[in-house]
## 1
Amino acid sequence: MKLHNFNAGPSALPAEVIDQAAQALHNFNNSGLSLLEIGHRTPLFVPVMEEARQLVRELMQLDADHEVLLLHGGATLQFLQVPMNLLDQGAVASYTETGTWSQKAIKEAALLGKVSLAGSGEENNFTAIPSPLYIDPQSAYLHITTNETIAGTQWHTIPYNSGCPLVADMSSDILSRSLDFNRFDLIYAGAQKNMGAAGVCLVVVNKKCLGKVTRTIPSFLDYRLHIKEGSMLNTPPVFAVYVLLLTLRWLKAKGGVHAIEKINTQKATLLYSTLESIPLFRLPIQKKDRSMMNAVFLLDDPMLQKEFIDAATAEGLVGIEGHRSVGGCRVSLYNAIPLSSVEILVDFIKEFARKKS
Ligand SMILES: *Cc1c(COP(=O)(O)O)cnc(C)c1O
């Protein structure tokens, strides 16, 4: 049976990416060696790193001030590395609290400086993006989580004009929609939601915002050293970098960010409009803040909800159970999910509702 994979992360990758990655494990570029067995500074691997970074630059249309880094440690290390480089001891940064992931970012930043809450969705249980924002004018930067993967919310209006540098965790919507990426001072995103395999994290940083803090930054956490070494300060996660490269090539061949955004919009519109039209399903997120990447919904009867998830799984529609912390259902609609999979899911949803009414 063909499976339709709606997992939240790690999540679906294009079939051709998986095939090419498998091939590279056996015989990389006809070298007779596995990708896993070659030096990262060899003429075989160096072009992989260079092309991956170049494709990010191209797909995001970055200007010369913005540097592209592929680092270890996931988005979680960035929760710490960002304030380590941008927030001085005793200085203040503004954070928006929109759910689990932004809360983790706030916790780490508070270890290194002062955090001012620019807005919080806590009182409405993170079902809406806070607005308006109240930003401390002294802020070193404003941090947002452009897509809250667990809550199922997304910033559809980016606060570009807040008056302070903008930093974003884009782990779960990177390269899914056109944004003015050059207007961010720093963007980070773990690869495993929308861009590739776990183990590599993309960081895009405007080099003009570096070198302003007074603390001594440990070498491995200093973006300037990673820039200087071309993202090869130490052994990079070679396999994850290669899968990232394959996924970026796939995205470019699809027409890039603008083209994939159109498909992503179709997918999300189809799913949400179907769920809205059936009383059995409840959509807890405020309509204007719904995520195009992670659709969160529930059935009021927990027994029926379990039946729904089990029946979907039996039909090959996998990964739709909500995050363990919030329950309900969550369908992730990342770039690699084709519209046809969403059409099949929607047919299943309608048929389930028909049988139960
Ligand atoms: C998954 C996720 C993270 C954590 O990423 P890791 O690479 O596992 O550290 C952080 N932020 C958001 C928005 C995520 O979706």
Note: Residues 9, 74-76, 101, 145, 149, 169, 171-172, 190, 193, 201 surround pyridoxal-5'-phosphate (CB under 6 Å).
## 2
Amino acid sequence: MNGVTVEVDGTGVAVPEGSSLLTAVRAAGVELPALCSDDRLSPAGSCRTCLVRVGGRVAAACVTPASPGMRVDTVGEEVARLRRDAVEVIVSALPPRALADGSPGELAHVCRAMGIGPEAARGAGGRGGDESHPYVHLDRDLCIACGRCVRMCSEVQGTFALTLVGRGGDTVVAPGTGGPWAESDCVACGGCVDTCPTGAISQPGPARGLTSAFHPQEARTRTTCGYCGVGCALDVIAHDGEVTAVLPARDGPVNRGHACVKGRFSHGFRTSPERLTRPLLRRDGVLEPVGWDEALAHVARGLRAAVDAGGPDSVAAISSARATNEENYLVQKFMRVVVGTNNVDNCSRLCHSPSAAGLTASFGLSGGTDSFDDVARSDCLLVVGANPVEAHPVVGARLLERVLHGAGLIVADPRAVGLALHADVHLRPRPGTNVALFHGLAHVLLAEGLTDEAFLRERATGLPELTELLVDYTPDRVTDITGVPAADLVAAARLYGRAERPAIVYGLGVTEHLHGTDGVRSLANLAILRGAVGTDRGHGVNPLRGQNNVQGASDMGALPDLLPGYGKVADPAVRARAEAVWGGPVPARPGLRIPDMFAAARAGDLRALWVIGEDVRATDPDTTRVAEALDACPLVVCNELFLSETARHADVVLPVASWLEKDGTFVNFDRRFQRVRPAVPPPGEARTDFDTVRAVAAAMGVDLRCPRPADALAECAALVPAFAGLSHGRLDREGAVPWPCPDPGRPGEAKLYTERFATPDGRAHLAAAPYLPPGERPDDAYPLVLVTGRRWAHYNSGSMTRRSGNLALDPVDLLDLHPDDAGRYGVRDGERVTVESRHGRARLVARVGDRTPPGQVFCSFHFPASGVNRLTSDVADTVTSCPEYKVTAVRVTPS
Ligand SMILES: Nc1nc2c(c(=O)[nH]1)N[C@H]1C(S)=C(S)[C@@H](COP(=O)(O)OP(=O)(O)OC[C@H]3O[C@@H](n4cnc5c(=O)[nH]c(N)nc54)[C@H](O)[C@@H]3O)O[C@H]1N2
Ligand SMILES: Nc1nc2c(c(=O)[nH]1)N[C@H]1C(S)=C(S)[C@@H](COP(=O)(O)OP(=O)(O)OC[C@H]3O[C@@H](n4cnc5c(=O)[nH]c(N)nc54)[C@H](O)[C@@H]3O)O[C@H]1N2
Ligand SMILES: [Mo]
């Protein structure tokens, strides 16, 4: 690190080059007020509370760069008085309640430190507030116009929703759209709440005015967010067993003090009156509360009866990517050791199983290739089929920040998603045509000599076959297939091809297709052609994994063909190792994937299904058929927080703890293990998934061992060399550790393949898969292509976000359609519409606009009652069975 040494009150202190004097002063341990400053933001220098004397003049420390040899005086009487005057002037305009006893927040802290009492606050107030938003309230009387919220919203969150209005002493923050906060562009990331030094912007309720920098240390629990796969580190503040606030951790490795509406605010579900608190058992067709012993005995008896009648393979489990690693580890161990089947799968099947298959085939391991910190240092980002601004907001914000600082951006998405508005090139392929698009880009890279020949020679295979295939993917032909103008294709290829350190980030727009695995592999080709993976000339290929622990659920072996650590269950040596650790035989035949489980149930071959935290009746495709399968299965057991669609029809429902209530670890999208800790107890009689699996095993007469989650991770680490260096103790000390991590004494590998790829021959494998059309195609009866995906305020089945203040932010499932199509089909904005496919019917509310191109419509699936997955088909990726959620032929009529 290049450093600068300055002298603060006579003591030398070294800070990184580019630091401000404020950083140097604080590094010297001197506390200075700095009310318009936040080290996550660019300095403003407007409040004059951080004045110091340097080189004979008075300067605001926050906007003065530290240069070598500077001598800073913070203690002189004059500067101390100037600082106090500045604070007093600010305080004098505020009403006394700004400094009332026990006020939280930075200003109150500063005043206490300077001995400025509430009597100094003499403002009349009366400017009113804005309490229209469920999570963010504005009290104008407390606003000191420091602008931190405005900079937070633009620089860190990238939403630009706030502005300062008015003049002089009347200046105050306001939503840029002018109206009430609730109708503004605010996405409730909480950044403004977190930086506000006075509580002018705060969250309602007991945590009013609390921010991550100024809250009591003792009452907090450090944990990892249980919504998406970003893996934000959060501090949960609890009082009397209730969550009062969730604050983003400043030292969170990915989030760095930021969060989104879900992790920060959407915890109201915990105390919903609909939360399950007792086990339920179906008697005479009705689910009735029973004691745990009775419920467990019923499950144990039912599983044993199924095995007796149809053999171990007539039982299956769907494990949860919402649950911890330790829970997933136990579920798969239970199925293999106690039941004796490999019929265990998780929602990675519906999501990024093509990433697992494709990345393993191309590079050797089933994970993203680079750390997100590296990706966020790239000079060119290729974001494909992902909408991180809504689905991974903290990642979206960091990517946008990078772009606003000059990185190139190519977005490939049929829709005008948030990042596309900032892109150098926005490619809008027809849904389902990615493989042709990627081949088109590769064609240009080859044709224009933008490949890394030495890398291709020394570290890759498959170039001759790919070169031959790419002859057919000229820009013009690719335009015909994808609809992307040839000039845009060439421009994108040049941007990616000429960048110094390009990175690829992608999502479900690549995987959830009939040829999703081919899509992943053809996308990986681009990084290989450029030598931008496993080298310092780029930052690889990185899937934005979806659920909080979908990477981990698969890492732990909740998969029908793979054991923990991705060893093939069909491989006798792999089985032998597991058998030695588990002390029992492991079945050799790979088990059923989720869609095959349903097919087996419909055929009468599946007699018992344990569904742990997945609402398959709402979120799997073609739910009419899923319902038939579940209804045909004699025993369906469901671990749930709520009576989901699946639980509602189950035979036994076990009430379980949520992520805020349990102990363990999650693995995030860039392969980091992080700790999950209980901040509050589960409600009523709810237990953790971990306990339920152990208890069912015990009821079947088997001790699964691993009494605590830490023991389960330790056992897994003993089994899997790539996890050997991981333990709860280590994670407690170090925070986040990425896998592979074979050694307890050495860091995990954040960036993969720097020496060799993990394929059998140590090389990266180019794939030469031809483009094939999607499974569903529009025709006269179903003329539109429906793409389904996410909205920012809700999460998947919506079971948790709909039971929180988020419902007020986004109350219905909307169908986006283009004005041309609205005109053609007689649909008006805001009107109810019926959407029909070849498989079923859904009811939604139309939103007319041009974010979706003509011929395509888009909706989310966050409200099971609207029936979106009755529309989707059972077409699935040919390699992994990942559903083609992104292409369904539909028609739309007003209803
Ligand atoms: N707010 C919120 N966040 C979430 C979730 C949530 O439900 N809500 N769910 C979590 C989960 S489980 C997951 S897996 C992730 C998913 O995160 P993403 O992968 O970002 O989510 P999607 O919105 O499903 O799809 C991404 C994009 O793919 C585009 N797309 C569709 N077809 C094609 C195509 O053929 N080619 C290209 N290039 N693009 C296409 C769509 O227009 C869409 O914008 O989000 C996680 N985060
Ligand atoms: N049309 C369409 N459908 C889709 C998709 C799409 O893009 N389009 N995306 C697909 C994708 S990528 C995914 S990942 C799936 C997600 O689909 P699901 O996994 O079904 O969705 P979630 O709402 O995340 O969670 C399922 C259930 O888990 C419960 N739950 C939460 N935490 C826990 C826990 O700790 N333990 C237990 N036992 N239960 C818990 C919740 O209450 C919820 O009912 O949806 C898929 N469905
Ligand atoms: Mo997902």
Note: The radius of gyration is 28 Å.
